[in-house]
Amino acid sequence: MSMIDVLVPEEQEGTKAVVRGWLKQVGDSVRENDPLVELETDKVTQEVPAPAAGILAEILLDSDAEAEPGALLARIDTEGKAAAAAAPSPETKEEAPEPAPAAPTGGLVDKAAIQKETRLSPAVRRACLQHDLDPSCLEGTGRGGRVTLEDVKRVIAEGPAIAVSSAPFSAEDIPHDRMRRTIAENMVRAVSDAPHVTALFECDFSAVAEHKAAMKVKGVKLSYTAYIVKAAAEAMAAAPAINGRWEEDRIAISPTIDIGVGTALGEKGLVVPVVKDADSLSLKDVGARLDDLTTRAREGRLDRKDVAGGSFTISNHGVSGSLLAAPIILHQGQAAILGVGKLEKRVVVRELDGQDVMVIRPMAYVTLTIDHRVVDGHQTNAWLSRFVEIMENWPQA
Fold this sequence. Notes:
Its EC number is 2.3.1.-. The protein has 397 residues and is of the alpha+beta class. The chain is built from eleven helices and 18 strands.
């Protein structure tokens, strides 16, 4: 018997990953590069391929298990003689208890939802259906809080009074997926770890709008986000610590300007693909890079390298309609996040020929939320002033 190890990829950049689900089962034949298992983080879902052809002999990390870089996921028998008759895990090989020991509780159980619940083993799923138990109401003692067969047996033994199931709050309830849980954990950690302060400026987009329209006539389509990314990269010269991070013994300044752009995925949450070396790219190149990243993000085709290593983040929340927001710094390796509100025409006062006049301009509120351990108000306002200056004085095309 010749065994090959299947390992968690090393390229995780510290991002926490879990096993989302196995695409092959013990005893299945696999070809080299066949997808074996899906790993999921708060940013991307990644398939791990088979490193060799053979039989999947052993699975070491079950669904919902944490997958550290380099951890052993499974083993493949490259001679193809093992594993077909491999014993299942203790949980799956136990038979479900007979329905006689406990009468049905009469509670409202969504049996269709239980059948689709991938976190339950077949034995647990069968037991819950036989005894009208809602697994979401049971306390799981398995890895990651999973409900085991022993948990079900214990509830059945305690009698119907304890086994009463409850109906969902509503038919529209949305169970937490891994991305939502991880986003929640990151939010709590970010607020508790870094003292957040937000500064607010207004920005006139007239010059950018004129340049954007002129470029469109020339056949180059650019989003407003491309201009925002480019202006943010140039503004770093006014306050380099904005492109840094807090360390216990120093403020570390990133040698590159790598700007993450929050990209909404509808009900699935959001990801933050990164435009690497944004300061060295032309506006046209920034636009092309953004188009590629956002398209692949919405199609679920981002690689880990696409979301790793950002030194600054932009949340263009105005595209979804909000005028003003103070986004949270989600990444521990960053000191600031720029928020850009909805672009709308407003009446503003401008000085023309020595006179104050009211004019209509495309305006947006811009905020910079900073880690106050890294920078103070002076640097924050210097950065925002330079950003607005660049945007409002964009050269003609």
